[in-house]
Amino acid sequence: MKQMPLQERPRERLLRAGPEALSSAELVSIILSTGVRGETALSLAGTVLRVFGGLRGIAAASTRDLAGHKGIGLAKAVRLKAAVELGRRIMTLEPEELLQVNGPRDVAGLLMGEMRYLDREHFKVVLLNAKHRVMDVVTVSVGCLDSSLVHPREVFKECLRRNSACIILVHNHPSGDPTPSAEDIAITRRLTSSGLILGIDVLDHIIVGDNRYSSLKELGLMASVSAPSAGAASWHEAGAAPVACVAGRENASCDS
Q1: Sign of the torsion formed by the C-alpha atoms of 190, 192, 125 and 221
Q2: Taking a C-beta distance cutoff of 8 angstroms, is the pair 228, 192 a contact?
Q3: Rounded (10°) CA dihedral 49, 52, 56, 59
Q4: pLDDT tens by residue, 25-84
């Protein structure tokens, strides 16, 4: 393996191009880690695949049978069987029942307890699938909210990696007053435009205060830059007061 150019070695190729770009022999060689005298890990991996009849044969073989092959031994056989078992467990995982959000109140209820007492502004992105089920909540920045901290690249990076269908922006106002500022509105419109280019709907921007929240969608402050997609159109707009409480009271004090 040392004679192979560094950039062409399986581990380096995986780092550069991702695991899907590697052959089965290359992936097995990474698990084996080392070869034997006169045979590289990649060559040994190819031999093992051939002798045992491919990946299916390796999966069916016992640890003892694998360990008995020249150059494998017990340690390598155990690693191979562990990798096979992990793959089997992934294939048998039950689908997770993800939380579904249908409107701003659902999102505020999800994050209010975590964000209402924060002493600095935290900007988060709620990743949703096509059915508006929450895939994850990602923190993008901590500190005063401005366009230099909340860059579209950082906001959408995880969305693209996770293949999220749409997102909701959320940040808190440490003052407890969730009334949107001019900067909040400008950032929202910038990110909405960026999402349009990437094909990711920005459904709303929720601002969290002390047991109160505001929705820029409900306030009509998310200027439409295109016709809404089906996902965006199904996002509920309550058309309520400028500031609402998680518990549903619409007066501006809303003290808990």
Answers
A1: positive
A2: no
A3: -100
A4: 999 999 999 998 888 999 999 999 999 999 999 999 999 999 999 999 999 999 999 999
Give dist(CA 188, CA 182) in Å, integer. Answer: 10
Which amino acid is it at 97?
Answer: E
Q: d(Cα 181, Cα 201) in Å, to the nearest integer?
A: 22
Q: Considering only CA atoms, which of 195, 181, 185, 187 is closest in space to residue 128?
A: 195
In CATH, 104-245 is 3.40.140.10: yes
Comparing CA positions, the residue from 39, 41, 40 lying closest to residue 30 is: 41
* Dihedral sign (CA 203, 161, 99, 133): positive
Burial of 243 (C-beta count, 10 Å sphere; 0-12/13-18/19+): buried
What is the Cα–Cα distance from 155 to 167, expressed in whole angstroms? 10
* 112, 213 contact by CB (below 8 A): yes
Say whether pTM exceeds 0.85: no
Q: Which CATH superfamily is domain 6-91 in?
A: 5' to 3' exonuclease, C-terminal subdomain (1.10.150.20)
